[in-house]
């Protein structure tokens, strides 16, 4: 089932990252034609020659058409050609930073682990959006959580907790638990573990269990904290639960394109159980 | 019609013909601007092992089209590189992204390896050959790949591995 869901999500995202545009909004006739070409690419699989040609023609007709520049860039990103991805994506960002700077920052984090570059983009984007950057392109993360993870990976823990508070606590306080991401409490718990705040980490994992308790990662990290704080038997119980969730009746971190931060593998759990 | 008008007409005709030719040549260039699929690799007799074959060149999946061996075994694959890679001396400015892209065929064999190198600002760069050659050799050594599986049929697929390097050290491996 998990694989099926992953595959379905992957297919949707890989075939189309764009939405249909209302071409009647364009006053310039060339840009209206470009828009129609852009909408026509719905018919073609992403990254095929004909799809890229339609987008390229749209750009030739209307060079300021940021959507086409962005869409042209996407298959290069997914297929590891980051030079061409940046070539086209940078043009989309230059034309419409409010729409594409956040996406570029998120992609630099996700596909390249370019933490410094992602932070540069996302901090600028935060300002442009008047401090409401919203979600990552795949909908998984609030962009403040991405910023927190970037800071953590750079070893800047104070800054990481600052962004976590904005991405998690502020969202919870203003909009409720539904708006906290499915992985967020786990990421912050792992970050707290790294600075040896075990009580804080357990507190976040308890919140995770309230939000969603079927991720093997949550139980694995809970087990690790319990082991580190001298509660071996309870730790073993958590690792067994993590293994069961991983293999049969639960889930573990997975993504169509890239390994997620703090992913736990079955071998990690088995190692903990030895 | 006087001689001058005739000459003008002839000149206009040739101008028209030239613009048609230019348009045709432009359109032919456009056709070649993009490969059949972004990221396609084609056989190069100068560098590729002739013994490696792609089972169905018309349908080569991308790693993200199906569940992939890489995604389930990322931990071991990353360890394969990090435990064997030796940072060469004098790698102070060896910083950027080195990507190796290749095909896993329907038998789980790998081939048609290509390397793409960028500096930290995503501009073309050439890493110290001791880095590039080492990572390429390690990528070729990786065995145990499984072909892409879709609706109980196996397919060839593309995979890439990107190394983020800072002063010659591997900082991260993606995707």
Spell out the key features of this protein.
heterodimer; A: 274 residues; mainly alpha; Serine Threonine Protein Phosphatase 5, Tetratricopeptide repeat; 14 helices; 69% helix; elongated; disordered N terminus; B: 175 residues; alpha+beta; six-stranded mixed β-sheet; 4 helices
Describe, in plain words, how this protein is organized in 3D.
The complex is a heterodimer of chains A (274) and B (175). Chain A has 14 helices and no strands. Chain A has helices at 2-15, 29-40, 49-61, 66-78, 82-95, 97-112, 115-128, 143-153, 157-175, 184-194, 198-211, 216-228, 232-249, 266-273. In chain A, helix 5 runs antiparallel to helix 6. Chain A is elongated and about 70 Å long. With 175 residues, chain B is α+β, with helices and mostly antiparallel strands. Chain B has two domains: 1-33; 60-174. In chain B, strand 2 (96-104) and strand 3 (110-119) form a beta hairpin. Chain B has four helices and six strands. Chain B is globular, with a radius of gyration of 24 Å. Mean pLDDT of chain B is 87; it is low at 12-29. The longest helix of chain B is centred in the N-terminal third of the chain and has 31 residues, at 3-33. Chain B starts with a helix and ends with a strand.
Compute the number of helices of chain A. 14
**SSE string of chain A, helix = H, strand = E?**
HHHHHHHHHHHHHH
Task: Supply Rg of chain A.
Answer: 21 Å
Reading the helices and strands of chain B in chain order gives HEHHEEHEEE
Overall tally of structural domains of chain B: 2
Q: Structural class of the secondary elements of chain B?
A: alpha+beta
Give start-end ranges of low-pLDDT stretches of chain B: 12-29
List the helices and strands and how they pair.
The complex is a heterodimer of chains A (about 270) and B (about 180).
Chain A: H1 2-15, H2 29-40, H3 49-61, H4 66-78, H5 82-95, H6 97-112, H7 115-128, H8 143-153, H9 157-175, H10 184-194, H11 198-211, H12 216-228, H13 232-249, H14 266-273
Helix pairs in contact in A: 2-3, 3-4, 4-5, 5-6, 6-7, 7-8, 8-9, 9-10, 10-11, 10-12, 11-12, 12-13, 13-14
Chain B: H1 3-33, E1 60-62, H2 69-72, H3 74-84, E2 96-104, E3 110-119, H4 129-141, E4 148-150, E5 153-166, E6 169-174
Parallel strand pairs in B: 1-5
Antiparallel strand pairs in B: 2-3, 2-5, 4-5, 5-6
